[in-house]
Amino acid sequence: MSGDLTSLRGSAAIVGAATFGCGEAPGYTDMELLAHAARAAVADAGLTMPDIDGLCTASASATMWTLPVVEYLGIRPTYIDGTMIGGSSFIAHLLPAMRALQSGQCNAALVCYGSAQRTATFGRKEVVASRRFLDPQPYEMPYEPMLPLSAYALAASSHMHQFGTTRRQLAEVAVAARQWAQRNPEAFMRDPLSIDEVLNARMVSDPLTVRDSCLVTDGAGAVVLVRADRARDLPKTPVYVLGNGTAVWNRQISSMHDLTVTAARDSGKAAFAMAGLAPKDIDVVQLYDAFTINVLLFLEDLGFCAKGEGGAFVENGGIAPGGRLPVNTNGGGLSCVHPGMYGIFALIEAVRQLRGEGGARQVANVKTAIAHGNGGTLSSQSTAVLGLAETL
Predict the structure, then answer these.
(1) Total H helices, total E strands in the chain
(2) How far apart are CA 143 and CA 146, in angstroms?
(3) Given this model, what pLDDT does residue 1 score?
(4) pLDDT value at residue 3
(5) Does 207 sit behind a cis peptide bond, omega within 30 degrees of 0 on the bond before it?
(6) Domain-by-domain residue ranges, the chain?
(7) In 3D, which of 329, 324, 360 has the Cα closest to residue 346?
(8) What pLDDT score does 131 carry?
(9) How far apart are CA 64 and CA 61, in angstroms?
(10) Is the separation of the CB atoms in 265 and 279 below 8 Å?
(11) Residues 6+ apart with CB under 8 A from 40
(12) For position 184, what pLDDT does the model report?
């Protein structure tokens, strides 16, 4: 670990966080959703929009998304990050933003996302079609697979073959997410869900059923970062970024060397090293659960259990309320919200748990948290370790 990254540990804090339009928000565009969340996050930080001089954002539907966002929000940032690596983008934005804050390039950085994927006229089918042009995958697209679903089904099948993981263990992930969602008034799906209901749900890409798969919703989220010295003077409890790491090993699922090992192994190692912490030190974990297999893979690759033991780890409510490790306490992408890219919502839920703002789903005595993002088809991975002032 370089001295540079070690010196950045805890140098910036998240001081504002907000969501907007989660679930169904008919009549809103992506930009309008983003703007509502952005303004709410800035207000939550005790700041005003003219205070924002750093912008980090990305969209699946526009290649130069930062430009209209700057225009729509009416800001003139001195730092801009439009890195687009899928759903992990917003967690990957943290470390560059910390560098910009530390150097004085900006003083308040806004990380934001919005998508009306569920209700917009330009919806998921159009996004998928555009990816064939904007994001060609030469070894897969000619066969017209059901992406991203079939890619994750392939990873799930491989995990089952290598380690004896069962569909019932995958179903445990979906049921745990729903149990957390039932405690979250913002969650889109809050009806009871049983293991058998997951197993007997419509099969969409063997071995994954529709209940093994994330939601398609609308929604927006935003966070605001400032330097640690300034954070202490703002109204909300600062949530310090203790560590952050990003890793990319592949784009296409067919280019993975091992379908059961993701680049989260590297992103997690980097984030933990920067933070000076280990998995045993983490109180709550927010993982990008695009599909149930993701949670098993990331629990293993981030070091919460050994490779191949993810299935056993989640059995018997292991990650549900009252289990051994609180995972996706908002309900995750499986039951709370998933408007195309989920990473910002994992980050916001980690912040809310650290602030003690979880309401009925609040975990007691939370001092540290993980927010982990995934992009593409197990393509990009980004891990953030967050903590309260006492962890500095």
Answers:
(1) 15, 11
(2) 9
(3) 43
(4) 54
(5) yes
(6) 3-121+215-391
(7) 329
(8) 54
(9) 9
(10) no
(11) 18, 19, 20, 222
(12) 98
Name the CA radius of gyration of the chain, rounded.
19
- Beta carbons within 8 Å of 338's beta carbon, 6+ residues apart: 214, 215, 216, 217, 219, 290, 345
DSSP states of 28-61 as a string?
Answer: --HHHHHHHHHHHHHHHTT--GGG--EEEE--TT
Q: For residue 128, what is the DSSP state?
A: H
What stretches in the chain show pLDDT beneath 70?
1-3, 121-137
Q: Is the pTM of this model over 0.90?
A: yes
Q: How far apart are CA 177 and CA 100, in angstroms?
A: 36
pLDDT of residue 146: 82
Please spell the DSSP secondary structure of 283-301, one letter per residue: SEEEE--SBHHHHHHHHHH
Q: How far apart are CA 276 and CA 76, in angstroms?
A: 36
> Is 103 in a helix, a strand, or coil?
helix
Under CATH, which number does the domain 3-121+215-391 receive? 3.40.47.10
Instruction: Tell me how crowded residue 206 is: count the other CB atoms within 10 A of its CB.
Output: 11
Q: How far apart are CA 145 and CA 378, in angstroms?
A: 15
What is the model's pLDDT at position 61?
86
Helix (H) / strand (E) element for 82: namely none
Coil vs helix vs strand at 219: strand
